[in-house]
Request: fold
Amino acid sequence: MFVFQIFSMKGLLIVLCNFFLVSCQSNVPVAQMTDTMLAGKNDAPVMTADSIPAKQDSNLLATRVPDTIRMIYLTFDDGPLIGTDNVIEVLNQLGLPATMFMVGKHTQADGEMRQAFLTAYNDPLLQVSSHSYSHANSKYKLFYQNPKGVLADFDKNNNLLQLTNKDGRLPGRNTWRVGNRKRNDPSARSQEAADLLQQNGYSLFGWDIEWQHHGNAEPTQSVAQLLQMIHYAINDSSRCFTPYKLVLLSHDQMFARKENKEKLIALLTALKSKGYQFGLIKNYPF
Reply:
């Protein structure tokens, strides 16, 4: 039961002033971190080869990037594989953030692959996201004929790898589901599966440029050719899924050989020298 009191005009003014003071103090904005404000490795969870505790996804917080800033989102697919450790070493050497879309099945291949995954997972520069558990077992047409099976495959991967994000990339398909925007791979019938994943909270990221490779994992384009492709695409508002925000795809196994590791160093060093900014996929504009 409430008891009402009659205040004098002076007392009422005091109460109102105090109320507005408290209200204003409660709206103090909280500063956000950028991609370059990185938490130390000691903040990452302790992990073993036998268990993967849930990662605290607080190392790199999202921040709004001005629309005209030229941003490159480095992404590496299919890990952990031979070459994953070299990619991680280069990224740390140059201090660049990147997203590694990993395949759960590969983490179970042997102890070396398991450790490569754990190294990436614990690295504060890196975001580990899903590239499915099975990678469609390389039977893409059959895989996408069963959208519910695709969803189950991605859920299995997120649970196995204890991922705290639902950013993903479809195996073998350049498909986008970002916020209310989407784009389908023109050569694939994966739209229904992509829609179902989005309905279940996943964001799907394709790519704007791929550093392609031959069957023996040797890079197809030279560093100079790729630099030219990136320069044209990132400076033309019509060439990227989001203007001036370029998603670059490559694959871990491309950099297993020392010579190709050096090509990756050369590419990323050149991109840094041109003043491009680098970000994680979780900070990609929606």
